[in-house]
Design brief:
CATH architecture of one domain: Alpha-Beta Barrel
CATH topology of one domain: TIM Barrel
CATH superfamily of one domain: Metal-dependent hydrolases
Shape: globular
Radius of gyration: 21 Å
Structural class: alpha/beta
CATH class of one domain: Alpha Beta
Strand content: 15-25%
Distance between the termini: 30 Å
Length: 446
C-alpha cells in the first residue's frame, strides 16, 4: 500500500497551528506525530518545512454545468480547477439541464461524476412546486441536501407556492439550502429600469435591481418558516449586512438549526468595482455596497456566518460580454477561493485557523460529511499544502476553467498551493493536475 510522509509541516487544524509530521497510508491519515521516521523504504517523503498543511476545502455550493450546459464547464474540467485551488470536495447544485428534480436524474448525475471527478463530490436534490413525492425519497446518508430557489431560479425551479414550501419544510429532516431573493421586488425594480434605460441597463444598477430589500424580505421569510416548522435551514450566499442580523452566534454550530454562508465574491468586491469589472462581477445575489461587504466580514468573524463557499458558476466570455439584460449572472471561482482567503490572512483580516474553520471544519459539521474536513488519524487524507512566502499572478494562461476567464485575472496572490491530496493521492503538484481523477462520492453521517 502506498505511503506518503509529510514532514515538518505547520498543521492548521481545530483552532491550533502545530509543527507535526503526517503519515498517509493508502487513502487515510495513519499517524500524526512530532516526528515520524519508521516508514517503509518506498515511502514518498515531502519536506514541508516553512509550509502550512490544511484540511482539504469543502465547497458547499458550485455549479459545474453538467449535464446540458457543458460548453461552460463540466464535472471533469471544473473539479480539475478545484483541486488546483485546494478544494478537495464539492457539493453541486441541481439547476442543470435537465434539472436534478427526480431520483432517476439524481442517480444519473452521480454516475456521470463517478471516475471523472478530480475532487470528492455530492449533489443536491432540487425542489419544485410539484415534486414533493420525489423529494421525500432522497436518502440523507447519500445526498448532501435539498436545494430550493426562493428567487433567481432557472427553468421551473422557483418554489413560490407557500403551501408547497410549508410541506417541504415540514416533510424532511435534511438540510434545506436556499437561494433567497424576492422575485416580485426584483421584477418591479427591473421593469422600472428597463423603461428608463432600455436593454442596456448600466451594470451599476444590478445591486439596486436585486436590492437589499429583495434579499432581506426573502431570507427573513424563509427563516420564519424554518422556525415555525422546525426545519434545518441553510441560507446560501448572504450579500447584505442587514441579513446577518437574522443569525445567531451564541450556540455551537452543531446545535444551530439555521445557518448561513458567504461567498468569496461578496467578501472581495463592492459596488465600486462594477466600473472596472462590469458584468464579470455580475452575480445573483448582487455584489452590493462597501458597508454590506464590511458587515459580512464582521458576521463571518463573529460566527453569525458559518461557511465560506464559492458559488462557482462559469459562463463563456461571449455570454458575459453582452448588455446587462442578456449577460448571465455568475462566475468561476474554485481555483482561487483559497488563495483569495489566504491573501486576506496576509492582510490581517482573518486568521489561518478561522479560514480552516469556515472552509473545512464547518461544512463537514453542517452537512455531517463522513470523515473529512479535519486532519485526524483515520480520516480520509484530503490535504492541502500551502507556501505563504511566494508570489503568483493570475494569468489567462494559468486558468483551468473551461470558460477561460476569471474575475481575479491580473491579481497577484502572495501565496501558492504546492500540493493537493485527495483520498491520499497527490492530485496537484503545484504546477500540474495529475491526469487520473481520484474523487469519491461523499457520504454523510446521518
Amino acid at each position: 500500500m502506498k505511503t506518503v510522509l509529510i514532514k515538518n509541516a505547520q498543521i492548521v487544524n481545530e483552532g491550533m497551528i502545530q509543527q507535526k509530521d503526517v503519515l498517509i497510508v493508502g487513502e487515510y491519515i495513519d499517524r500524526i506525530a512530532d516526528h515520524i521516521d519508521d516508514v517503509p523504504e518506498s515511502t514518498s517523503i515531502i519536506d514541508a518545512k516553512g509550509k502550512y498543511l490544511l484540511p482539504g476545502v469543502i465547497d458547499d455550493q458550485v455549479h459545474f454545468r453538467e449535464p446540458g450546459l457543458t460548453h461552460k464547464g463540466d464535472i471533469s474540467s471544473e473539479s480539475r480547477a478545484a483541486v488546483a485551488g485546494g478544494i478537495t470536495s464539492f457539493i453541486e447544485m441541481p439547476n442543470t439541464n435537465p434539472q436534478t428534480v427526480t431520483q432517476k436524474l439524481l442517480k444519473e448525475k452521480f454516475e456521470m461524476a463517478d471516475g471523472r471527478a478530480f475532487a470528492n463530490f455530492s449533489f443536491m436534490f432540487g425542489g419544485t412546486n410539484d415534486n414533493l413525492e420525489e423529494l421525500i425519497q432522497t436518502d440523507p446518508k447519500n445526498v448532501a441536501a435539498i436545494k430550493l430557489f426562493l428567487g433567481s431560479s432557472t427553468g421551473n425551479m422557483l418554489v413560490d407556492d407557500e403551501e408547497v414550501l410549508e410541506k417541504i419544510f415540514s416533510s424532511t429532516n435534511m438540510v434545506i439550502a436556499v437561494h433567497c431573493e424576492d422575485e416580485n421586488t426584483i421584477k418591479k425594480n427591473f421593469e422600472a429600469d428597463l423603461e428608463t434605460y432600455g436593454e442596456d441597463i448600466p451594470i451599476a444598477r444590478h445591486p439596486i435591481i436585486r436590492s437589499e430589500e429583495a434579499c432581506y424580505l426573502s431570507s427573513s421569510k424563509a427563516i420564519a418558516l424554518a422556525r415555525r416548522t422546525g426545519a434545518r435551514l441553510h441560507v446560501f450566499h448572504l450579500s447584505t449586512a442587514k441579513e446577518t442580523n437574522l443569525f445567531r452566534n451564541d450556540i455551537p454550530l452543531e446545535e444551530k438549526m439555521i445557518t448561513a454562508e458567504v461567498c468569496i465574491h461578496h467578501l472581495t468586491f463592492d459596488d465600486k468595482d462594477y466600473a472596472s469589472k462590469g458584468t464579470f462581477i455580475k452575480w445573483n445575489p448582487a455584489v452590493k455596497t462597501e458597508k454590506d461587504r464590511e458587515g459580512l466580514w464582521k458576521a463571518l468573524l463573529d460566527d453569525r456566518i458559518d461557511v465560506i463557499a464559492t458559488d462557482h458558476a462559469p459562463h463563456t466570455l461571449k455570454e458575459k460580454n453582452q448588455v446587462y439584460t442578456k449577460a448571465p449572472s455568475g462566475g468561476p471561482l474554485v481555483q482561487h477561493a483559497l488563495p483569495a482567503m489566504l491573501e486576506f490572512y496576509k492582510e490581517g483580516r482573518i486568521s489561518l485557523e478561522k479560514i480552516v474553520e469556515k472552509m473545512c471544519h464547518n461544512p463537514a459539521i453542517l452537512f455531517k460529511v463522513y470523515n473529512r474536513g479535519y486532519i485526524r488519524e483515520g480520516y480520509f487524507a484530503d490535504l492541502v499544502l500551502v507556501d505563504l512566502a511566494c508570489e503568483q499572478e493570475v494569468t489567462k494562461e494559468s486558468l483551468l476553467y473551461k470558460c477561460g476567464w476569471s474575475p481575479f485575472e491580473g491579481k497577484f496572490f502572495h501565496n501558492k498551493i504546492t500540493h493537493t491530496f485527495v483520498n491520499g493521492h497527490l492530485v496537484f503538484d503545484g504546477k500540474n493536475v495529475l491526469p487520473e481523477p481520484k474523487g469519491k462520492r461523499l457520504k454523510f453521517d446521518r
